[in-house]
Amino acid sequence: MKAARVYNKRKIEFLEIPQDPIVKGSSLIKVNEISICGSDIKVHFDSDLSLDKYPFSPGTPCHEVTGIIEESGDPKIPNGTRVLVIPKNDDGMKEFIVSTSDRIIPLPEWGGLDEWVMCQPIGTVYYSSKQWGNPKDKNIVILGQGAIGLGYTMIASKQNPSKIITIDPLNYRLEKSLELGATHTINPLENSLIEGINDLTKGKGADIVVDASGSKNALNQCISITKIQGLIICFGIISEKHSRINHNEFIKKNLNIKSTHLATTENPLVEIKEVVKLKKDGILDPGILKTHNLDWEDAQKAFDMYSNYEDKVIKISLKVS
User: Fold this and answer.
1) Which of 152, 203, 227, 308 is most buried (CB neighbours < 10 A)?
2) Range of the domain at 44
3) How many structural domains comprise the chain?
């Protein structure tokens, strides 16, 4: 079968590999649509890794995958079932995947798999957003309005906060955030972030600040605009191993900082399943984040688009033919 992988910095190749063996209790899935996560870009595609790290394993990096059960190992998920699957080894850029049922989520028969695949990243956001509790009448600031940041905006807009203030240096993303429920936007390349937040919060700072930017300086920005005893939720993955913080300001503000990473929790599919249900029920639609459809043979183009912020990209779905 065919698979793709990163074989050098910012380079994708295709290769032929044997199909993974089907072990008892697992199912064979014909992959249909995949998407690319921001962490795939920052941690894998764009990172300055040593040459001995290349090439990556076939299929890597990719963990946003939908497909159809080709050969079921679970009577509860019969052949022909449309599914979202979370590859255990982040190796979803393959024609076929073998997976156990605990990493498979059945999907409805309606709607495009190119949109259902977006439930995976928004599921991770949904888990993270639970950490802010009830945000009613509070001011929420979200740094970064890529797909993840826009996911926070979508979710927050359903929970009646006082303000949803989105931050991004790309105006097309800020415009999208207004469509999805943001009340105010700030482009930090055009206006002062601190002055803007002070104006909008009457000098108090934000109750809740989310870092969805993936910038090594984001935590310091969060500290500077969060109110005393406020909450910072960290989601963004950075390319660097370390980032520096303004330690004294952090201490003086008595801040609560919560790191969030669904994949390393005890039940990493729970919130993704919940988002699938929210989409089924018409409450939340992650599919509206999709801006482009490409064939997976254009994977190099897709990764480059993400890396270079081309053509107002937010999310790309790649059809595995």
Assistant:
1) 152
2) 2-117+285-319
3) 2
